[in-house]
Design goal:
This protein is mostly helical and 425 residues long. The chain is built from 17 helices and no strands. Helix 10 runs antiparallel to helix 11 (302-320). The protein starts with a helix and ends with a helix.
């Protein structure tokens, strides 16, 4: 590798990790401040259902759109443009949440749905850059470091939000009218959009675009490409096996992330400030956890490392049913944070290893599809059980089935065979 190519590679790796740093502000502040604000404006069961069903519906819609948009991005070598459009739309909607006062509570719902959908769509285009900027040997570490950067960035955004709540009086911030909550949502959008700009400007598609065609013709061709991929999915049997397992266990992970704050609030009566501290702890513990799992995967293999993570999740969810104190809940959060980033990082690496590079955006569109198509069921299931039974313990225990079933499907996975299938494409 020449000095110039090495420099360009380091630059791409930095820009890739920076985007994780940027968008993690939405990941952390949405599950703490945004969900609390929604439930404050929509009390009783309606807030629980708006949050759960809103996440579920936007995940499902992004699952339908991601493969088509990914195929279009591949044809035109325009992943960067799609990433920019979805990122700027989502961050702008998040900033506008500052205007969603209690008198405009339905504006908050519209902006929440817009931001959530934009975030989910952006993930597919972002992940599709991974096979282009890292080779098979680098991919695991790049994925782990980018997730680590995300935990630090999300943690710092949480610190700012915590400062707004705890130091608001000293800073002269109004305490009435939920001003501080809305200010945190403004920070969420500014952080996501602002820190994404270097990535959106500097990261480039490496594939040369095909001759430009009208958008309708491009969409038709993209649909044909997606249909062809579905027809020939048997050629990528290991990839299909992984996607099916990921579809299920990732539903459980995403639901734990998005809904566990409700367990702390309802069962343990934890205020938003304490939930911010809990999620802040998760962010910084997850960083060494993600790096440790990446190190482990390099030594024992990506699949064995994933199986270790899934086994921990199964034990964790089984024990969560018996949690009755804040100390136990904090202990559960520590264990979850140690495997949270590792599970996602190893999964993204396995996907990258078994993905044909010339169709990266399309296949990562399917990765997004796999992650989101049924991810609607976890939040819907959790929020419905919680709303109609009032038992957060049963709602959390119900997520165990996602991890058990996903693990059983992943058992026959052969990553080496999946790599051979990708190279033969």
């Amino acid at each position: 590798m020449t000095a110039m190519s090495a420099q360009l590679n380091r630059r791409s790796l930095f820009l890739f990790a920076l985007y994780d740093w940027a968008n993690s502000a939405y990941s952390t502040l949405s599950i703490t401040v945004l969900v609390a604000y929604i439930k404050r404006l929509f009390p009783d069961e309606s807030g629980v259902l708006i949050w759960g069903w809103g996440l579920g519906s936007t995940m499902f819609l992004s699952a339908l759109l991601s493969p088509i948009a990914g195929a279009i991005a591949d044809l035109n070598a325009s992943k960067r443009h799609w990433l920019a459009g979805t990122t700027l739309a989502g961050s702008a909607a998040a900033m506008l949440m500052f205007l969603a006062t209690p008198e405009r509570r339905w504006l908050l719902v519209v902006l929440f749905l817009t931001t959530s959908l934009s975030f989910e769509l952006a993930q597919g285009f972002y992940n599709a850059f991974l096979p282009e900027i890292a080779d098979d040997q680098q991919m695991g570490q790049v994925s782990a470091w980018s997730y680590g950067a995300g935990y630090v960035g999300g943690g710092l955004a949480l610190l700012i939000a915590l400062g707004i709540f705890m130091l608001g009086d000293r800073l002269g911030l109004p305490s009435a009218g939920d001003f501080r909550m809305r200010l945190c949502l403004l920070v969420m959008g500014l952080w996501w959009g602002g820190f994404s700009l270097p990535t959106l400007i500097g990261l480039r598609d490496k594939k040369l675009p095909e001759p430009r065609q009208p958008i309708i013709a491009t969409a038709k061709k993209a649909i044909a490409e997606v249909r062809r991929t579905l027809v020939h999915v048997r050629r990528y049997r290991m990839l299909a096996t992984f996607l099916l397992g990921f579809l299920i266990f990732n539903d459980g992970i995403q639901t734990v992330i998005s809904q566990s704050s409700q367990f702390g609030e309802i069962v343990l009566k934890m205020p938003p400030q304490e939930m911010l501290l809990l999620v802040l702890m998760i962010q910084f513990v997850a960083l060494p956890g993600a790096l440790a799992i990446g190190w482990l995967a390099d030594r024992i293999g990506q699949k064995p490392a994933l199986m270790v993570c899934l086994s921990v999740w199964i034990a964790l969810l089984g024990g969560a049913f018996f949690i009755t104190s804040k100390t136990q809940f904090w202990g559960m959060a520590v264990v979850a944070s140690l495997v949270l980033g590792g599970t996602q990082s190893v999964s993204r690496t396995i996907m990258g290893l078994m993905t044909p590079k010339k169709r990266a955006a399309e296949f990562f569109g399917f990765f997004n599809l796999s992650g989101k198509a049924t991810s609607m069921f976890g939040p819907l299931f959790f929020s419905s059980i919680l709303a109609f039974t009032g038992s957060a313990h049963f709602a959390l225990l119900s997520l165990l089935i996602f991890f058990v079933l996903g693990t059983l499907i992943i058992l026959p996975l052969d990553v080496k065979r999946g790599q051979r299938e990708a190279l033969s494409a």
